[in-house]
């Protein structure tokens, strides 16, 4: 329009030059003539104009006559006149000034005849432009053509402003189709000519495509025009003839255009052929048209007067109206109803679409509407894509941009499985029933649909985009993702940057943007490299990897929240809470239901049913079909909750029953151990990949399984091992010393293997492939047949492949056991296959006797110059093994060497005979000599003693120096750490000083702004009033105002500010603080009915400010508050209260205690000196009233540990809140209103100075310690060098040795110690040990060439226990080593750590009798201890038996009373049924309100209780939960229910009530840093059912409450508290007093007695602590005079509320949705009934206490049995050790006597 205006202005500026006037004259006979006048005079006589018209008509008629004769025109008639479109008549002259030049004007000629035409031949020229003829679509469908016409109408109405109606009406009949729109319309003018509708390429909207690029999704800018031929071709596709009628709001006439299919197609073919031939001859497409008056129906549909109507006559096919309505709604859905265009979020109707008079917004059909209904309510996965591509320089026009752009929005919507059925399947079924069905099923359903500018492209039904696929995904979640991704459909909205196909049914296939969109998620193709894509989600740009990760997380989130793969089983479920093996079960929920029967698609599947899982069905079923037995069905979440999957737990056929899944229920805790069973998704049933198996097929598979199962173990022989290339054959027999083979190869043979297959032993078919372990044991038996077998070697291995053969068990022998065949005897090799019934195999190898060994020389290390000589001994042994009493094998010389020591038969070893050859051996190095006689030994001992003394001195000095150096280094490390901490503190404080004051001011200003923005609150109104002088508003009530609680104090840290604000709550933080009661009540006036009068006081002032006050608000009067009366901290300028530190029962101050909250709030200067009339400050009154003696701790752990000394509640900086009433505030919160944070600058500067002084002291200490450390270290290295020199000389003399029986073979040498003493604690201990006795042990080794000596180190300190045993219980004397003891080595028996073991004295000095006597004594002592323990066990067993009998008696009594109550219920059932109806209804309303709070703790728990009441009561998480406050009491009327509920508040009404504090702790757990564990407790339960627990929630522990200690009302079945009535100063009861709120709560009879462990009921515990002595009055007027006797608050039935002394709740009543249920009628139960019920409760309470006693006795019994078993094992061990000692003692004595005799 702007361009046209500029062009017209330019033409008008030319003045009178080149003025051209064009007219189209419609003649009375139905023809039309065009006239053109170049620069005419301003006026022309009318006759001249008619004459020119007649001449032009004659010329035109002769050239273009259609052959039909037209009626004659009376050119000479005196009644000739012209009429324009506005019905103006022209007769006298033609005034050209009334017409715009350069435009065509339509005039109608009248000749006075009554026969006037309405349609005129060749009125419109529809000749298209040349390029359009090349773009015509090849084919058109009926629906596509109709949509094209509607596109034109939609583009038209979209141009209307808000005042004009946007209507598109489609009417379909058998003979005509009409499309009517209320767009701007068309006329005969050049710029708005109706010709453009029918002329190809002349679309008015085609040039607007650029404006439709960009914008905001869903891109509702219907500039669909791309090619400019939609109107004429679409109308001709629908029918044979079309009539277009249109009117603008400025014209009075309706212009019409006629289209005829035959004429149009003939002209089209002719023009196309001419264009192809390149002919320049003119060819015009002209059609008829006309002008007429609008019809009444047309006027009624368009109040603003413009419209366009297209009528198609003789349609080619008939349409089903309902299907047409659904399809059109799908195509134009965002224009029919849209949520995104409305700022309020409400659904709007951008355009009114009607089909045969029915509004499309009102119909329920259509794929889009049905799809939206079945989508989940969760968040969609929304992406914003921006495409850009550089245009080809060869193709772009000069005016075009360098880059072309496009935008798209992808919205992925999740369609969950509900009640075991896919929602997508429900969509397809619904479409089929509505007659709109497609050939698609769940697998082939199109997961992508596309809209361009809000219009659906019907044929753009794509499969999933690449980023939506998980084909290559691996891992635990792969199968789940592959299933869940099928539940996602992506709705793509594109702008005009994307090109459609000519028929506008899909995106252009070869467009680079289309290709890039279809490939989103993959690497770009070659033709996409010029296209740049930017991906955004929530405003953040993503890479492809981030896109895939976030999409995966979103799908898993949707699955957990909304998938209900199996609504419920066919049987009662068993709940499993917080299973530890979720990964094995393949679930993610914290709660799961276990069923034994499940119905799926009408078929019931049961536990024990045989099934077949087809190959590739899911994870774990990859290569082969799996036959299995169903064990359980596992459903995630609670019944009826959205989210969670369903799985089948099945045991494969190859798995034995004992390895399958086990469901364990132990004391209410349920666990599901899947073991080796499979967990498969239940969707395998839906996909047909799981089918039931008949018995015949199952039996066949059993037989196949048996044939393949392991049957026997076979060892490969030498030939088979050679074929494998290994040395692996066991010999049958061999001489001692035979080298064992490299390996042994074993295989497992299947049951199908028979002896006839011996030639194919290495065929894989006859070698079973298993993953089981095989064990090998080697047992040795010597030639003496009387000795029994013992295990010598045990090994285990798994199968491995070799040369392409699987299943080979290869045991290494030679490398691992080189001394295997060194001793003669029988070696038995046993092979076992673990976890299998496969037969084991044994292989025996006989090793023959080895020759006798003779020893020639023994070398000794002696002092220099001494060379004693010893003869060469010849030792021969006649070996006999004798079994000792405790199973040890000892080598003996002969079997007669058995002596009796006391009552024990002890085998004794005789010493070998030693003969000496006196020939001397030379000592070339003068350090090695031969012992000649025993006189040389003392000289060696003297030299050794001298060296030992020197070593001792050095060792002691090194030990002291090492300790000193270590302490120095620890101190240096600590000082350096302290220095770093101080430096960091100084840096933080300096930074804080700089920003302290500015931060505080800005925080306080921000807080005020936040409060002021809270509209409709008293706090916001008061802050605004404080800015306005009171004289201007006449606010007399503002005089006694002090301020708001939140603005009267500040804290030193943000953590403290947050937790204090959270403790008080927003109501108290925004409480109004006044000086007196008079100032408080002046804020509000009341009407006669008790309602607030909004015309006075604070409400009137708010109205003057244009504000209002809704709801209640707290007002605190300081003069009425009881102040703190103790001492103050005199040195503190803030006048903090002198409260004593809390003391635990142990006498200590609790760990982590930081102080009292009342002292942690700092007051501003002007508030610090503010006092009440009695002279008390704000801290003494306001903050002491708010906080009392509230403790502040560092952590929750510190707070809970100090519960014993907490009276007024406590908080912790990590979020813990323990209230005075006994309620624990769990969860986490984020309060909006917090105290400002202020740190004192002076205090921080003082701290900086202190830190700097401390830093200087620390630096000085570091320097001093460093200097001392260097000196000590230098001295240490000098002494250490001397010690090493002495140790080197000593080690050269030391013979490397060890006890051969400790190692079994060979001798391990003693290596010299070269490790630094300071660094090695073991060396430090070694060098500090005194060497008091040196002994020699001769060891004869039949595998070595020398006789070695061991220098034994023994300690002979008085009274010290010996820690070394001659014979360890698990060691045996080796056959390879024989030892001869020259010294005594005593053994100590190992006893219980708490017992004193007898000290066995040296056998060489005291003899064997004393030792035997000691053994007998200690044996008797152990027997006495065992007897005493047995008596304790008997006592505990008797106690348990007695408690059980008493419990059984209680059960009988309870049963008898329940029978009595049952008889009463039977007789009065019909009567009570009607009475309880309204009560149930009231309870249902309260339950409904609780359940509506889905993300609250109460909502989650109550849902669990309502659906799984019986089982939920036994869960660990909830078994201690008694209920919700709102459901534990009832009241008699609605008004009282509302008042009491409003007094408590929603948070308290939704509080969870637990019996014990253990139940409180189970609801919420924390990690090491004090953060809440979201995966456990109530948070984990909420997450498992898709409900994230938000905010805080109160938990009340009954055991923590201080119960009412007074009497009860006599003979009251409700056990009301006998509270004294309030009394005024004159002694009278206040008028209007109705009673105490605690007694107005009706408590269920089961909760009146024995609820807590101490036997109290709910009234004296829970409700007494909630209401205390809250008084109830009739009216506010009654309540005010009673203020002197109100201590714990009061309420009135007309809405008055006093919280406590000095605290008033003003304002209008609030509608609390969670209320106490209403008690419909007074109970008519007899006293005997109530008494029986009370007795039952008492008996149940006694039974619970008795069960606790039984548990305690059982624990004591278990402990006594454990101690008894331990003592018994010690006794048996003592007997074995004593036998071993006696044997060794006799052996040593005999050896000593032999040596002495020689």
UniProtKB/TrEMBL annotation:
<dbReference type="Pfam" id="PF13589">
    <property type="entry name" value="HATPase_c_3"/>
</dbReference>
<feature type="coiled-coil region">
    <location>
        <begin position="1729"/>
        <end position="1763"/>
    </location>
</feature>
<feature type="region of interest" description="Disordered">
    <location>
        <begin position="268"/>
        <end position="302"/>
    </location>
</feature>
<keyword id="KW-0175">Coiled coil</keyword>
<protein>
    <submittedName>
        <fullName>Uncharacterized protein LOC110767159</fullName>
    </submittedName>
</protein>
<feature type="coiled-coil region">
    <location>
        <begin position="940"/>
        <end position="985"/>
    </location>
</feature>
<feature type="coiled-coil region">
    <location>
        <begin position="1426"/>
        <end position="1453"/>
    </location>
</feature>
<feature type="compositionally biased region" description="Basic and acidic residues">
    <location>
        <begin position="278"/>
        <end position="301"/>
    </location>
</feature>
<dbReference type="InterPro" id="IPR036890">
    <property type="entry name" value="HATPase_C_sf"/>
</dbReference>
